[in-house]
């Protein structure tokens, strides 16, 4: 199994997001590659060794370094403008420097937004029970779920400081994982 590890700050700021899809459209505004609102399977070419999209690992690594003890992580909304700016950079395939241009609340909001905008939720509607769900999930969904679970468990271990118990995390992430 693949779990997130502490990454030195230098590596977070030097990582560049690659383009992820090859959509063709006559409209030049739409003729750009995206990462938000794209099926997980389409982001496989940009996935890390864990099979998780690069932007997710970049955001999680940032939050592990700066957010584990941040009070209200995932409950306090980030700056709307900052989230919009970071999302646009990811969607345009630009280098995203979360250390210098992000903050814990905005990056946490961006991670939740990415999950909410998946066209097929991590837990799709057509699966009726957990055992069936886990065995039927596409590999890309299984990888993301496993990666996020390990990260959220780490967040919960700091609940005495950040007040994010497993129950609070379930309330915050449930709507994004089950559409």
From TrEMBL:
SMART domains: RhoGAP. Residues 38-179 form the Rho-GAP domain. Keywords: GTPase activation. GO terms for molecular function: GTPase activator activity. The keyword Metal-binding does not apply. One of its GO terms (biological process) is signal transduction. InterPro entries: Rho-GAP, Rho_GTPase_activation_prot, RhoGAP_dom. This is Rho-GAP domain-containing protein. The lineage of its organism: Eukaryota, Metazoa, Chordata, Craniata, Vertebrata.
